Amino acid sequence: MRPIRPGDRGPAVTEIRTVLAGLHLLAPTDEGRSDEFDAATERAVRAFQQSRGLSVDGRVGAETWRALEAARWRLGARTLYHAVPEPLTGEDVRTLQERLLEMGYDVGRADAIYGVRTSRAVAQFQREVGLTPDGACGPHTMNALRRLGRKVVGGRPQWLRESDAIRQSGPTLVGRTVVIDPGHGGTDPGVVVPDGPLRWTEADLVHDLASRLEGRLAASGVRVQLTRGPAPGECLPDTDRAQLANALGADVFISLHTDGHQNPAADGVATYHYGTDNGVTSATGERLAGLVQREIVARTGLRDCGTHAKAWDLLRLTRMPAVRVEVGYLTSPTDRGRLVDPRFRDRVVEAIVAAVQRMYFPIERDVPTGSIDVSELRAVVAAGTVVD
Ligand SMILES: [Zn+2]
């Protein structure tokens, strides 16, 4: 859909303004027509996007629209239950999940989707407070949650649970499934830079990176799947890319992009993982993002633009540790000059392989950044022994 933007008028704008007013981001008495996307509306949309970890552009595209739809629901306003096949989603579900997480219940990630795991966690909570464990959150369960207030806090239990699962699975890469997602493609070339007779697009470059990464990981005994080919007919939406990774039961999800900016001086690498402003974060995603970022900076010399938490669909809906790497700015002459060099792209790929490997090392046995020899890993696999 075409984003709804400043200057637009109509019933859709009225709806947007109503939700924003309900979130106290927009005073309902703001002057101007109630169906007009005016400056106050734009400010409110930006504040909303910021609070949800979305890209802040002041327009309402598909992703922001879905977030606004979900934001209508406040916890307690409706009964929540595990609906099949179309699960309930909304801000109330996320609030409930965050409460349960704080109390030490295993809801997985606070993804705002009322799935099997959330339902099971609710049932466990109900059993422990003496309610019928039906896994649905109605008025009685809400009362019990309110009575407990914020007294019961388990100290980031999800953090421990996720890291435990990874530690117990051992340090080997053999047999793991990694989904690599080259961004854009099809009708969407991503960042495009005319450069002499060669016209580089982000879509082409990241596909090349993805194929190289696929080769390296496969040589280490990893099952690899790419979300798209080199020239797909259409551009796959991020929700489909996340679903593909979930359907494959992937252990790790890596999305590859390059950045762009109107200022050619902007350069460097940044890595994103799932997280919101409320301090909710995917601990393993955050750890993987840190490792990818540090390895790339150490091995390539790209400027370190840090790691950041975002609630993008791609990161929110994937059920495994997921990161999105923006490997340099195609609009920066310096970064571009490096990215078009295949040897440089190989260094980027080695850095990502090293980061994935390090994620499976127990933290106390982790190695210094830049120190894993990726070719050695391959030799060990070829010799038929497990890396330990
Ligand atoms: Zn991109």
TrEMBL record:
This is N-acetylmuramoyl-L-alanine amidase. It comes from Micromonospora globbae. One of its GO terms (molecular function) is N-acetylmuramoyl-L-alanine amidase activity. Keywords: Hydrolase. The lineage of its organism: Bacteria, Bacillati, Actinomycetota, Actinomycetes, Micromonosporales. GO terms for biological process: peptidoglycan catabolic process. It holds the Pfam family PG_binding_1. PANTHER family: N-ACETYLMURAMOYL-L-ALANINE AMIDASE (PTHR30404), N-ACETYLMURAMOYL-L-ALANINE AMIDASE AMIC (PTHR30404:SF0). Residues 242-357 form the MurNAc-LAA domain. InterPro entries: MurNAc-LAA_cat, N-acetylmuramoyl_amidase_3, Peptidoglycan-bd-like, PGBD-like_sf, PGBDSf. The keyword Hydrolase applies. It is an enzyme of class 3 (hydrolase). GO terms for cellular component: outer membrane-bounded periplasmic space. It comes from the Bacteria. Its EC number is 3.5.1.28. SMART domains: Ami_3.
